[in-house]
Amino acid sequence: MPPFVDLHSHSTASDGSLRPAEVAELAARSGLSAWALTDHDTVGGIAEAQETSRRLGIDFLPGIEVSAEFPPPGTLHILGYGIDPTSASLAEATGQLRHGRDTRNPRIVARLRELGVAITMAEVEAEAGPGMAGGPVIGRPHIAAVLVRKGYVSSIKQAFDKYLAQGGAAYFDKERLSPARAFEVIRQAGGIPVLAHPVQLRMQNSAQLDRIVKDLKDLGLGGIEVLHSDHALADVEACMALARRYNLLMTGGSDFHGAKKKDIALGHVKGQRVPREYYDALVRQLNLRKQ
Ligand code: AMP
Ligand code: ZN
Ligand code: FE
Ligand code: FE
């Protein structure tokens, strides 16, 4: 069995460019032995991903990536692994997050228009496509793609730098879950909450990061994403040290978004691969809890 996996990926259910079934096919074609779909704030792609993975004989872990409150300039994303996509409390939480986006996205577009950037919500919705049941979770990458297509910026990165990132001319925050609630709904759905890409917390030093991880552990954190496309080698080592110190599972993934992030390939994390052991340890802990 191939020893590599990818535990962080997005599909057209949120801001990836491939359908869940296409990500499953790519995972199998890329020689991965297991993968997880972790769309932003939705479980809409899980059923299709699971079914295709079963057909292709590749192991699959249902996941989600939830947006949680955190002081700027940091971003706090919590991955939930092994969640039950039919969980009622998870559905309530994702509904709330979708509402937060439905409020924010038109504000971004209105500000862009004030700035002379003539795009519409209809164009953004068309960019996101039909998505899965319940419609796609629409995010800034969809707006960025419209800006690129219409020639207002030359790249997704420039769209973020100029307009969409924190501090950009058309940035608006969106309603998120408190970290405690994010952990609660993931646990209630039977999943393990994992701190995504800790480098995006934008902590100033290792003592600050240590403190946050300790606080999150007290709230129920189960793991930490050590391998991620944004992590330099020093970040990987720092996260591994934190995992050992606080007895957290280690996870890793590319944060694949297809054409939305052209430089990221499924199964590849800055020249490294994610070991199968990370997937096995998650599954062991999930099975332990079900007994
Ligand atoms: P949203 O869900 O609307 O808050 O947008 C979050 C998505 O935007 C995530 O997939 C991020 O990876 C992506 N993103 C955030 N900042 C940037 C950036 N500076 N450049 C490219 N993508 C970004
Ligand atoms: Zn994304
Ligand atoms: Fe993220
Ligand atoms: Fe992600």
Which tags fit this structure?
binds zinc ion; 13% strand; 8-stranded mixed sheet; 291 residues; single chain; alpha/beta; binds adenosine monophosphate
Structure explained in plain terms:
The chain is an alpha/beta fold and 291 residues long. It is built from 10 helices and 8 strands. It has helices at 20-29, 46-56, 88-114, 121-128, 140-149, 156-164, 179-188, 206-219, 233-245, 276-290; strands at residues 4-6, 34-37, 59-68, 76-81, 192-195, 223-227, 249-252, 274-275. The chain has an 8-stranded mixed sheet. α1 packs parallel to α2 (46-56), α4 packs across α5 and α5 (140-149) crosses α6 (156-164). The chain is globular, with a radius of gyration of 18 Å. The model has no long low-confidence stretch (mean pLDDT 96). The protein binds adenosine monophosphate, zinc ion (ZN) and fe (iii) ion (2 copies). Zinc ion is lined by residues 10, 15, 40, 141, 257. Adenosine monophosphate (AMP) is lined by residues 15, 40, 139-141, 156-157, 160, 165.
List the helices and strands and how they pair.
Blueprint lengths: L3 E3 L13 H10 L4 E4 L8 H11 L2 E10 L7 E6 L6 H27 L6 H8 L11 H10 L6 H9 L14 H10 L3 E4 L10 H14 L3 E5 L5 H13 L3 E4 L21 E2 H15 L1
Parallel strand pairs: 1-2, 2-3, 5-6, 6-7
Antiparallel strand pairs: 1-8, 3-4, 4-5
Bound molecules: adenosine monophosphate (AMP), zinc ion (ZN) and fe (iii) ion (2 copies).
One fe (iii) ion binds next to loops.
